[in-house]
Design goal:
about 40% strand; 9 strands; Aminopeptidase; seven-stranded mixed sheet
Amino acid sequence: MRDIKIVIERPTREVLKEYSNISIKFKVDSEYKLEWKNNGLDGIMLVEKSVNPYWKDYDSKDDNPSLIADEFNLKNWCVISAFDGYTRVGGAIIAYNTEDVNMLESRDDLAVVWDIRINEDYRGIGVGSRIFESCIEWSKDKNCNRVKIETQNNNVKACKFYVKQGAKLSNINKYYYKDYPDEVQLIWSIDLQ
């Protein structure tokens, strides 16, 4: 792997702006479909199914990491960044103990990986794993018992990445996204105890 340096940064407006310049766009060629056994009494299966390929990009003018400073108190947040020389090539935003972050459930012992993104040229070479390991270490340093991560059923590569990192599926919410009724929210968790 290239000589990638991992840096923990305060989430200042400038850092968030630079971080947001890394594209989160990805190609979808398969999705997880929910299969209910006996209407869910015998379990729910996620079955990977091929779909007509399309591109998904979660960044928009209204939903961009550079805007979180306007929405939340970032005192208990950090940006874990990966640099190749002076070039920012990836990173993650992680938070704990923050009011109004639903996934934190008003608890001070949970952390949430708010966002993770890797420059397309650096995907698949271990940069994401190193960033995620740093998220886990940062969470342990904050005395968190669990790290939570949100994905969707159309981000199969991310789901497989989190499983490879040791995460377990902890929540499925089929009706979470009002504007995207075909997308299913998947919450992954890693227990730190």
